[in-house]
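#random but structural
TW: two for the price of one
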Amino acid sequence: MMDKHGVFGAFTESFDLMREELKRAQENERNAERSKKELVASLSHDIKTPVASIRAAAEFMLVAARDEKDRRQLERIGEKAEQINTLITNMFHATLEELQELSVTAAEIQSISIARLVRNADYRDMVLPFEIPSCIVLADPVRLQQILDNIVSNAYKYADTEIKVSSVIEGNELVIKIIDFGPGVPDDELPLVTGKFYRGKNAADMGGYGLGLYIAQTLLTQMSGTLHCENRSDGFSVIISLKLA
């Protein structure tokens, strides 16, 4: 202890006050982090309940469905409910600002399963018939579904046209092109469309946060894949490449 009226008393007392303020700030930060985790846990629990109800209702309706189109839609509802359930679980492990820490587990998957993921993403039935070469790639099916959902949803939103899917094996990669026939993006914006929170001039009157392609690119990178976009004379393409196993 020092006499606060001494030569260094006021100086020492100021440092002591700063130490107390820092201690309180750290404690507040820990409390805020704990509150955030508790909120995410609570929301996850609350959201899982109605999602389970949706899935159960879809399964019940599927039993009674006679029309093939109705059956496909109900199957898609059930698959989407399961996807939501998985994504909610992931909320425990990452927030938007911690995207790099999202768990990505690349495994060997058959290319036929990619075709199913594309069809799951196509809830408006706007994807033209397509085939994917038979091969085995390294990918995380849950994350790949997120990627395809984001790409197809963007095509719905900004092009509102039919969607063409083409794929080819090039070297040690499976290259998949998702093509719409909309206006594309201005050439000067093309390098920016995968940036975080970037929204082009054509998105001014549409909802969204400018995260779809950013998330897709981030997740693909963690699978050792790539994503890039290009304008065409008749539309816009998002091209994803997956490593062959």
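TW: number two ↓
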Amino acid sequence: MTEDIVHEATYPYPPEEVWRAITEPAALNAWLMQTDFREAAVGHRFEFRDKPRKAVGWDGVTRCEVLEVVPPRRFVFRFGDGSGGFTPTTVSWDLERTPSGGTHVRFRHSGFGGLKGWLMRQGMNQGWARMVARAIPFVIERRRATGAFPLRDEVKANARAPRA
């Protein structure tokens, strides 16, 4: 087994707002990938879609299934179904209210196996770090300011922009 991807952050937003950012379809489309995700319900199957990565044998589709839902504290889903020779992995989000009313987030992507798993982890670690540190807070701030989640291109540009 290859080491898990783990990222933690503390946001000034209450867990209910962070929960929406990781479980609402429009938010996931904005900060993660295009998805047909509809609800945070155990057993719900959905797909993420992105441009294929032929160099590693990925067709651009990741089939997922929700495994655990404890609103607004824990959200877990299987990432992948074993197609393309990739071992299915698990993505989990644990949200804990801070004394100031914010949220401490612990993100874990686990279960990487074999050479493809190692390659997958190498390719995904930095992206997950940007999403946890920058994309999710940006999505929450935009929703607070406008009442709507931003477009994916806006989130990507923000996440990659140099920090002031």
